[in-house]
Design brief:
71 residues, mainly beta
């Protein structure tokens, strides 16, 4: 999980995550990861349009967002 996040930070890629919130509900978010601080991920959440901090242990799944450009 951390390696995928580090790769996304290095390449400035957006990722899509499934996250387990403190209330026990899962949400799907699209993020621009910025920094890993201990067990937390600082990111800009494109879903909420605001900076957020996520507990890495609560990220259930992650995948890169592929942006296709028209030819």
């Amino acid at each position: 999980m951390v390696k995928e996040l580090q790769r996304a930070i290095y390449h400035q890629q957006h990722v899509q995550i499934i996250y387990l919130g403190s209330d026990g509900r899962t949400t799907q978010r699209t993020l621009r990861p910025l920094e890993i601080m201990g067990g937390r991920l600082k990111a800009y959440c494109l879903t909420r349009r605001a900076p957020r901090v996520f507990a890495i242990g609560n990220i259930l799944a992650i995948q890169p967002v592929v942006i296709r450009h028209a030819v």
